[in-house]
Design brief:
This protein is α/β, with parallel strands linked by helices. It has twelve helices and ten strands. 39% of the residues lie in helices and 22% in strands. It has a six-stranded mixed sheet, with helices on both faces. Strands 2-1-4-5 form a four-stranded antiparallel sheet, covered by helices on one side.
């Protein structure tokens, strides 16, 4: 997508109805503030980006949202509900799903089996139905198979359903991890560097898939990404972190012209020009 096309693009996400709201969120490790006073809002069907230099605290924010870490201070509201007392499992069931920088698939399972793992929090079949293989069990199996193939088809992977996940090319493994996360039926999908390791063609396909996910499933997306072409091409709102603090937030055009953001990525002007 060209810069001219991006300038003409109309906002698409519903930012008036927040699915996620972080209020003065922060965490300290041994006195070191990894994230400090973060205020972040993601609309119900918005595609948002969280960017910043390496070590800025982006993945730490994802770990706070998914309760890998418990915040030192601040509040996280998911669909208006305070997640303070939730475990990672409860947050997942409440509607947050994520992927990771390093792919975490069950490499010896098939592609479909990996997606079916993501359906675990939607089990509708009781223990005895499963043990005795009652009709309800087989009905659930058929439904899981249908839903798994439906999700794989979003990423053009339905024909790979029986392939072993570990045998897939790197880019396909990335797409499979997103499909598995989407299988949990989230309200908010967190993507941690989804384009890492992808070639330009795969990245373009990923951008289309993210937009399709939002439009088809009505899910909000918050992504961390270093590929600025992807970020500026797909995100409707971008928040920039540096040393754990927000230094900019707004549309792609706002961020591209923000002096603090430019300095954080490129250094001060006099330093770039050799002090001239």
């Amino acid at each position: 997508m060209s810069s001219e096309d991006r300038d003409k693009r109309e906002p698409m996400g519903d930012v008036g109805d927040a699915v996620l709201e972080c209020q003065h969120l922060g965490i300290e490790f041994g006195g070191l503030r990894a994230v400090n006073d973060l205020n972040l809002v993601v609309g119900r069907t918005q595609i948002a980006g969280l960017i910043g230099p390496n070590g800025a605290g982006k993945t730490t924010v994802f770990n706070l949202l998914t309760k890998v870490y418990q915040p030192t201070h601040g509040t996280i509201l998911l669909d208006g509900q305070d997640t303070a007392r939730m475990s990672a499992a409860k947050v997942s069931k409440a509607g947050i799903a994520r992927t990771f920088q390093n792919i975490r698939l069950f490499s010896t399972l098939t592609v479909e089996e990996n997606v079916r793992v993501g359906l675990h929090n939607q089990v509708e079949c009781g223990m005895w139905s499963s043990i005795l293989r009652l009709p309800r069990f087989w009905a659930s199996e058929r439904e899981y198979h249908r839903r798994a193939l439906e999700l794989l088809d979003v990423f053009g992977m339905a024909d790979n359903a029986d392939d072993v996940a570990g045998s897939l090319p790197y880019g396909a493994q990335r797409r499979l991890e997103i499909a598995r996360a989407l299988a949990t039926n989230p309200k908010l999908l967190l993507l941690d560097e989804p384009a890492a390791g992808m070639n330009p063609s795969e990245t373009a396909g990923l951008m289309e898939a993210i937009a399709h996910i939002r439009d088809t499933f009505g899910v909000a997306v918050l992504l961390i990404e270093h590929d600025m072409e992807l970020v500026m091409g797909i995100c409707e709102k971008i928040t920039v972190l540096n040393f754990g603090e927000v230094i900019g937030s707004g549309t792609p055009a706002d961020i591209q012209g923000n002096p603090q953001v430019i300095e954080a990525y490129l250094g001060k002007q006099d330093a770039r020009e050799g002090g001239e």
